[in-house]
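Propose amino acids for all 378 sites.
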């Protein structure tokens, strides 16, 4: 197959589909290329699906806040069900972590310190002796990631965008007419390429002859255990998270709990699998905090959270190569930042002003530009 477009987006995770959708709102024709035979197979399909305002560096918090209106009031016809539902977060500290809790409460917005007794009333199976301090963030939400991703895909197609799966980009060459992407599904041309390839974004840039920006994919493990029983109904529990990020759990449908040890093991980009030791560590940390023995790990998986060296997203033109645009380094926040990051990417590609919802947060988008990282990797 050969085809041309005004813009090629590489990657069919949440970053790629959201950006392609926003780019296609303008007259340009948009073509999205995905290596796998299904979209959202990698990180996007493996997340914990949370929207948390008080999470990550300031630029991430700003993008998250700027995207909130999209989650709460999506465009007409975008989805059939709400994109977010209520799911507060209970942060807990054990003895020795009180200073971390104080910092979390004082730096956070809408975070209220809570007595251990009040925390126990919310989640009665927390071990009393574990709880030295607690705080509650009522404004957190759980995201229907499938609805969000499908809304973008459906909207992209309605705007005339095309999606080609099983199209792994294997070569990127800049010619007079623009970029030529050689893929496993044929060759495609466009004057503009958006690199939204997640853990592979540096590899895609290398195909274009660009030195890496130092992205590091980090493995994060998740398991599903039974959280139901005579003693509890976990469905109304908040997410419970160690203030030091060493574990969290989240109620899921059917009385299940998603538990993660908050691991961050650097890995090469790949179809990542969980490590048995990490699964065992997850169970151990959960049982230390909860009076709820894990009888069986019902399911486990791992996904890659890919970070730039400074932990901030990379959104902007690469000054080293005409028409090459980065949308990468989403780390552990790629779902919750997607609506705002996509709008910003579309505005920068079209050389329009920064959208009002983002400007209002006071975010200086220069902190996201790839320029800051060029030449930093030896
Ligand atoms: C366990 C876990 C929990 C998480 N929890 C949350 C959370 O609660 N909230 C939140 O906001 N975020 C969370 N995240 C992070 C979030 O999942 C990621 O930030 C986000 O999914 C990244 O999206 P992406 O589109 O950049 O990457 P991906 O979804 O990985 O998409 C990249 C795509 O590019 C494709 N690709 C790569 N190379 C090529 C190529 N050469 N040619 C064509 N296509 C290519 C890949 O096949 C892939 O489909 C979590 C992540 C994990 C692992």
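Proposal:
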């Amino acid at each position: 197959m050969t085809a041309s477009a005004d813009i090629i987006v590489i990657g069919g995770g949440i970053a790629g589909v959201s950006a392609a959708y926003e780019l296609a709102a303008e007259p340009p024709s948009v073509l999205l290329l995905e290596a796998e035979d299904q979209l959202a197979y990698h990180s996007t399909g493996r997340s914990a699906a949370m929207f948390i305002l008080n999470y990550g560096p300031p630029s991430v918090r700003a993008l998250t806040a700027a995207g909130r209106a999209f989650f709460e009031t999506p465009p007409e016809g975008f989805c059939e069900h709400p994109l977010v539902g209520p799911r507060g977060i209970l942060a807990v500290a054990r003895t020795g972590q009180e200073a971390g809790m104080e910092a979390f409460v004082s730096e956070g917005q809408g975070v209220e310190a809570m007595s251990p007794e009040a925390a126990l009333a919310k989640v009665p199976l927390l071990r009393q002796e574990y709880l030295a301090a607690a705080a509650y963030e009522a404004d957190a939400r759980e995201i229907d990631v499938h609805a969000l991703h499908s809304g973008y895909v459906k909207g992209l197609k309605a705007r005339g965008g095309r999606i080609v799966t099983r199209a792994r980009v294997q070569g990127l060459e800049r010619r007079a007419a623009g970029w030529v992407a050689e893929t496993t599904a044929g060759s495609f041309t466009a004057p503009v390429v958006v690199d939204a390839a997640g853990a592979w974004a540096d590899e895609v840039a290398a195909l274009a002859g660009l030195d890496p920006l130092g992205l590091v994919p980090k493995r994060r493990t998740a398991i599903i255990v039974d959280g139901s029983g005579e003693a509890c109904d976990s469905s109304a529990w908040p997410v419970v998270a160690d203030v030091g990020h060493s574990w969290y759990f989240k109620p899921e449908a059917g009385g299940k709990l998603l538990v993660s040890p908050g691991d961050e093991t650097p890995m090469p980009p790949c179809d990542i699998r969980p490590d048995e030791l990490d699964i065992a560590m997850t169970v151990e940390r959960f049982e230390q905090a909860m009076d709820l023995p894990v009888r069986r790990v019902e399911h486990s998986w791992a996904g890659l959270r890919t970070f730039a060296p400074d932990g901030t997203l990379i959104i902007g033109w690469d000054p080293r190569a005409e028409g090459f645009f980065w949308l990468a380094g989403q780390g552990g926040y790629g779902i919750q930042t997607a609506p705002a990051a996509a709008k910003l990417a579309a505005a920068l590609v079209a050389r329009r002003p920064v959208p009002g919802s983002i400007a209002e947060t006071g975010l200086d988008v220069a902190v996201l530009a790839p320029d800051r990282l060029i030449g930093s990797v030896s």
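The mean pLDDT is 96. The two ends are 38 Å apart (CA to CA).
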